[in-house]
Amino acid sequence: MEGGAYVSLRDLVGLRHQGRGISLLPRQPLRSQLAGLHASRLRGRGLEFEEMRQYLPGDDVRDIDWRATARTRKPHVRVYTEERDRSALFLVDQRVNMFFGSRVRMKSVSAAQTAALGIWRVLAQGDRPGAIVFGDTDQTEIAPHRSTARAMAILKEIERRNHALRADSGHAPDPGQLNRVLGRALRLAAHDHLVVVVSDLDGADEETTGLLDRLAQHNDVAVALIHDPLERDLPDSSLLVVSDGELQIEFDARDAALRDGFTRSFEERVESGRKELHKRNVPMLPISTAEPVVAQLRALLGAR
Q1: Residue of higher predicted confidence among 187 and 250
Q2: What's the CATH superfamily of 9-38+86-301?
Q3: How would residue 248 be classed by pLDDT, with cut points 50, 70 and 90?
């Protein structure tokens, strides 16, 4: 559970009870990253308007709609029904760019664990977990359903794709896959879904921001940004060689100015993304590969 190159189904199932107290529902603790957003955020189940009708003896006077009453000159009430379960859609990135880690675990493993925690919490709250699990060449859609069997189906697909990752897989990285998956999610999550993107956001651009904006107009959206310490801080060592699989470059990592600029560039990118998402009331939850996922989510979301 602590880390490694690959995740196991047993580990993902074992997270079912480790996330107790972590909540994606409203009324978050004050320190939560989800606290303080406006009313359209992570609202969970509530009351859904059903109809307007004339007042009948026994109706609660607090439900009287005074505008309709004044307009028709007859007392009218607004009738509500309690929403049933809601659908949650987890977009889980298992592309080759996620097969990277410098400390405890790969980004792909952290993403799998983050998604599993969210799936189990959604199910425990009585809602319906679903997912789009995607690699560089294709994606698997699993429709939301409130059952342990559906949660297990999602976790098995995450494990399958996770174990298919190889540094020499031969699949070229496809940054454009992120936007294609978001576009598909936009068609699947028409309204009142919880959409959780679990990814390092490789390939994010202006189109990504636009797709997240459209998703957030009628759904609750959160982004779990998976990152590795080496993406922020270069080691203070001698010559380093970096390659994307085709081209490579060698540089001197002992240069303090180079290391500072590298760190500053990463922080600026993350902060810029966070601000853009915040404008759309989409919280960003940074998850590091070097720390236990459960502890990070507890710190970010708070625990009840």
Answers
A1: 187
A2: von Willebrand factor, type A domain (3.40.50.410)
A3: confident
